[in-house]
């Protein structure tokens, strides 16, 4: 939802090239990894896990 919502927000959700889609997917994947590493540095549990417990 976050990745697709951002594309809709900037007006690039429809009619994009395959190259754009691949670059965006790889960029989003790398951003997610960095965000996960930062989160794990400060918190012991993930946000959903904290809500469930």
Please give a quick description of this structure.
This protein is 74% helix and 0% strand. With 53 residues, it is mainly α.
Characterise the protein shown here.
The protein has 53 residues and is an all-alpha fold. It is 74% helix and 0% strand. The two termini are 24 Å apart. The mean pLDDT is 82.
> What percent strand?
under 5%
Helix count equals 3
Secondary structure tally: strands: 0
pLDDT < 50 runs, ≥5 residues: none
SSE pattern: HHH
Mean pLDDT: 82
How far apart are the termini? 24 Å
* SSE class: mainly alpha
Apparent shape = elongated
Main β-sheet, in a few words?
A: none
Roughly what percent helix? over 70%
* Rg calc: 15 Å
Helices and strands in order, then pairings?
Layout: H1 2-9, H2 18-42, H3 47-52
Identify the notable features of this structure and list them briefly.
single chain; 53 residues; mainly alpha; 74% helix; 0% strand; elongated
